[in-house]
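Question (not urgent): is this output format expected?
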Amino acid sequence: MKRLIFAILLLTAWSTCYSQNGGQQQFRLPSVPDTIRTVEGRFNYVVGNYWANFNFSDTLFLEIPERACEMALVNYADLLSRLPLAKSAPYLEDFLAKASANAAMQNHMAGLLRKYLVNYDSPLRNHDLYICAAEYLKENALDEITRYNAMQDAHLLSLNPEGSVAADFTYFLPDNTGVRMHGVESPYTLLFFYNPNCRSCQGIIEALKTSTAINRALETGALTLLAIYTQDDSPVWREFIKETPQGWTNGCDNGMKLISENIYDLRNLPVFYLLDSKKRILVKDLPLSQIEKYFK
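Got this back:
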């Protein structure tokens, strides 16, 4: 309820506009009828009628970047994220149906949804919500590229959901010994998929090295940190091993089956999976700060 109240308060401060013919056309939120008095009722009305004053057939604002009503989409995604998926999914599908007035509008809105719901650094990151969008687009996209991308996203983002048993795989140690991931015996296992040349990975690696919570869990034996280089054995990987703490287990993916066989979605590195003793996924592809909470 507090989340809904906060969202209602934010609505009064949100506006997005673009210029047209020297004037200004403003994105207008729907006016909630006075007869709807509950916070939840007013929230649901705004979400359900959010785009009522927007002309999806008008692609003029797509031609000039500063005319794009990106903030309107951002705020809408934020509202949807405050609802359970069972409630937000129909709203999202209705939005995408309206945005399918033409291919240019559909592609623009689909791209914004992916930018804010999928990208690692987005504060609105919500893979479950984006999967709903991808499922819609793979059936209703107006061009083949958008349809193909949606099919890929729907499949890869659905792999290894939280609560499921993580897919097993073989990784190779520096002495070229192959080890099954499910063979790791530990109360918790942190899978860390990375590439040493990836700038984002480099920042996360340094954060892992200095994390009090992670290092304490490693020292007590509560956690095994399994760092997997997602490519074949190489000098780059060998050099990286020299720089990593002794408590880490370093492996590489000789044959690159993790990527070629789509065992995990590794398109954007780094990627974390926190597993329990039975290799069930507790945390999937979330920032390190969310994983540290388990060990504080």
